[in-house]
């Protein structure tokens, strides 16, 4: 082999591991070691036994524990490695592409804690190709890289789509839960369905935890809450605990709680100047006539604050009927709203499905014969619909008001523009996917993968920062 064909390595070189989202690392070359090693912490296995994976975090810059890159890989083996001082350690073995300048090839790596080492990576002789020559007296024979890349906006574009561990908080084995599991596993993620009511929490300042059936739950990359209305207080407490730990939750506890409290939800929408039917709320039985006047004339809608799927929603055709319904609800000491009935909607509403910052699907729902409620659970029907720019903007504005990354926004088409009826923080996927013929679950995973990929970390303003060279 001609000398010109040789790749010259010094005893230390800049390398990249693009499969793991590590564009710049200093690696020590050690021909005395057979196996290469990568500094890793928070090492945790996940996935099926037939194809287990490992996830871990890497601090690529020595002395900068604030720069953290989460990684995951398929486990190839578990190997006992003996260090130069005679200590043995069982390590997971993974594979990754090694890139040096214009050259790249696959190597095997073991995962271990090298926090005390200046080089975050060790290159053993198995990783060195036949046409590499080692110049033991030199450093950085290949082009030098820079740690600045970890602070660059381009960091997101170089981050790989790593396998994630995701929890779906759900008590039901319904279409939505099954789709979320199937879609996630189809992308190589591990998706675990967790019964919200079987979770319990260790609440303390130093190490808050979520436990499930007697065991501490592992660290999840993301949580998809599917909190049933009947367990909203406890469900939001569980979500809040995951938020405390630092887990990305598709919908936060505050947004879920606000969407379930119909009175607060309408106050929140009013604060954000979102169009909705005229709405009134009162407690005293003496205020019935005044309450009706605030909303308008009959027909009126009387709605329990805790109503879901159209239950507890009554239309009063006349003022007398409205008085009777209101008095009946008050006799039960139930909290309720009174709303104007939007006649021109003709028993139809529009469900806009918002994922992230985009309306990804929409459908028009029509109530069953003789029923003004358009809920599909009550026998209503749905068809695909094209929404207007104003309707799209209204749906997005409503989802943002509740700070929800997944929301079903129900609105009516009125003569004065779209009126939002409700913002659902756990929208069903079956109807909208069937009608729109869109993979809504897939679009949600696109958003999750985008949100939990490594993000650039700002440099700390210090008198002296670690050198990039």
From TrEMBL:
InterPro entries in the cross-refs: Asp_endopeptidase, ATP-grasp, ATP-grasp_RimK-type, ATP_grasp_subdomain_1, Peptidase_aspartic_dom_sf, Rimk_N, Rp_bS6_RimK/Lys_biosynth_LsyX
ATP-grasp domain ranges (all copies): 266-449
Gene Ontology cellular-component terms listed: cytoplasm; ribosome
Annotated GO MF terms: ATP binding; metal ion binding; ribosomal S6-glutamic acid ligase activity
SUPFAM superfamilies on file: Acid proteases (SSF50630), Glutathione synthetase ATP-binding domain-like (SSF56059)
Protein's GO biological process: SOS response; translation
Cofactor(s) for this UniProt protein: Mg(2+); Mn(2+)
Keywords from the UniProt entry: ATP-binding, Ligase, Magnesium, Manganese, Metal-binding, Nucleotide-binding, Protein biosynthesis, Ribonucleoprotein, Ribosomal protein
Similarity field: In the C-terminal section; belongs to the RimK family.
Protein name, as recorded: Probable alpha-L-glutamate ligase
UniProt source species: Rhodosalinus sediminis
Lineage start: Bacteria, Pseudomonadati, Pseudomonadota, Alphaproteobacteria, Rhodobacterales
């Amino acid at each position: 082999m001609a000398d010109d064909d040789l790749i010259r390595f010094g005893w230390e070189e800049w390398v990249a591991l693009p499969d793991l989202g590590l564009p710049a690392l200093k690696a020590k070359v050690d021909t005395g070691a057979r196996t290469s090693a990568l500094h890793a912490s928070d090492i945790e296995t996940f996935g099926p036994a037939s194809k287990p994976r490992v996830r871990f975090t890497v601090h690529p810059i020595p002395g900068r524990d604030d720069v953290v890159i989460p990684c995951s890989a398929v486990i190839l083996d578990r190997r006992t490695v003996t260090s130069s001082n005679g200590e043995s350690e069982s390590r997971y073995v993974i594979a990754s592409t090694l890139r040096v300048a214009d050259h790249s090839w696959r190597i095997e790596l073991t995962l271990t804690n090298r926090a005390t080492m200046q080089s975050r990576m060790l290159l053993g002789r198995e990783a060195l190709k036949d046409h590499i020559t080692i110049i033991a007296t030199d450093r950085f024979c290949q082009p030098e890289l820079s740690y600045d890349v970890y602070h660059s906006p381009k960091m997101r574009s170089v981050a790989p789509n790593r396998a994630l561990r995701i929890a779906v908080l759900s008590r039901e084995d319904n279409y939505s839960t099954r789709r979320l599991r199937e879609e996630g596993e189809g992308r190589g993620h591990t998706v675990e369905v967790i019964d919200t009511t079987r979770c319990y929490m260790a609440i303390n300042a130093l190490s808050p935890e979520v436990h499930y059936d007697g065991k501490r739950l592992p660290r999840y990359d993301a949580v998809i809450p599917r909190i049933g209305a009947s367990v909203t207080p406890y469900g939001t407490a569980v979500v809040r605990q995951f938020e405390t730990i630092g887990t990305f939750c598709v919908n936060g506890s505050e947004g879920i709680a606000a969407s379930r409290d119909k009175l607060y939800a309408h106050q929140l929408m009013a604060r954000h100047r979102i169009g909705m039917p005229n709405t009134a709320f009162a407690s005293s039985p003496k205020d019935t006539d005044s309450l009706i006047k605030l909303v308008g004339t009959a027909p009126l809608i009387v709605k329990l604050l805790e109503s879901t799927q159209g239950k507890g929603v009554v239309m009063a055709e006349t003022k007398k009927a409205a008085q009777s319904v209101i008095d009946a609800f008050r006799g039960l000491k139930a909290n309720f709203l009174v709303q104007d009935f939007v006649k021109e909607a003709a028993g139809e509403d529009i469900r806009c499905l918002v994922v992230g910052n985009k309306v990804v699907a929409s459908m028009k729902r029509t109530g069953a014969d003789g029923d003004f409620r358009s809920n599909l659970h009550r026998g209503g029907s749905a068809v695909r619909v094209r929404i207007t720019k104003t309707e799209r903007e209204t749906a997005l504005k409503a989802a943002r008001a509740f700070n929800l990354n997944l929301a079903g926004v129900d609105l009516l088409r009125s003569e004065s523009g779209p009126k939002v009826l409700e913002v659902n923080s756990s929208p069903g996927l079956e109807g909208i996917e069937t009608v729109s013929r869109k993979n809504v679950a897939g679009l949600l995973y696109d958003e999750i993968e985008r949100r939990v990929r490594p993000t650039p970390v700002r440099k700390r303003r210090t008198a002296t920062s670690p050198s990039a060279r």
